Amino acid sequence: xxxxxxxxxxxxxxxxxxxxxxxxxxxxxxxxxxxxxxxxxxxxxxxxxxxxxxxxxxxxxxxxxxxxxxxxxxxxxxxxxxxxxxxxxxxxxxxxxxxxxxxxxxxxxxxxxxxxxxxxxxxxxxxxxxxxxxxxxxxxxxxxxxxxxxxxxxxxxxxxxxxxxxxxxxxxxxxxxxxxxxxxxxxxxxxxxxxxxxxxxxxxxxxxxxxxxxxxxxxxxxxxxxxxxxxxxxxxxxxxxxxxxxxxxxxxxxxxxxxxxxxxxxxxxxxxxxxxxxxxxxxxxxxxxxxxxxxxxxxxxxxxxxxxxxxxxxxxxxxxxxxxxxxxxxxxxxxxxxxxxxxxxxxxxxxxxxxxxxxx
Length: 360
Fold this sequence. Notes:
alpha/beta
């Protein structure tokens, strides 16, 4: 039986005014200080550490917003990212802990091998399925900001390869958030900013030099009205926190297609109402079409090499069988086997050429 997470309502009730007593900023809201954009989510990959160091160095120490950062890291790696960014930052930077209250003027960095989400004003770390082969992934952070903060959130995509973050940024925009990407011409790897621009209409584009001033302006602006949160956005955020998946849950997100998950081998469902094109399996692993194709390239290369090894063994075995048949005077059998041997050699040549193309 599925259990509901505390953010089951379309917009976090603790921030919508429905539960003013439990809201962590209720007194601030009464004074009108909660109406601005006070949460910034930042995601990046290749080249993002240098970009973050430059960005945080220029942000003011009195920034009236919390910053949550996800950068792709190795699952077993040490959590040195916060120290690297913090050494050049005017804002305090730390590795996020589960249940830690989120406060303005601080930077929270996702730890290795955990999705980082925001819920009811606190950090939630989840070990839900990987998205685009990454954990932490950027999409879950942006979705949680959309669910809990809506128009009070700003989502930022920095430099990086492939397109993690594009779908989450699109979901954040659907929830009323503001979206910003690093200018692709300014990025070390332009794929992530470009993919985000293709997935939805981006509000702002800026170089890393201009971004501190723009963010400072955006977080001081008043937030708009919060639209209803799409149920599939909420469901995917819950999956990142560890909600168990089954066939029924997967069917809520999309329809099965004849593709298998590279991670677990399960059937993939094509996500509905999603840009970019995405898939999720019954276990919960999620891929954009681009990330899935990237994973399949390695599988195809491996499959070609395995097939080549098998056919080469068949060639060697058939050669021995031809020799043995001729020694025993079974020429008719030897001729049949020799014909098969030529076919196997042709197949081996084709596979060898295919393997060389994959390597090239």
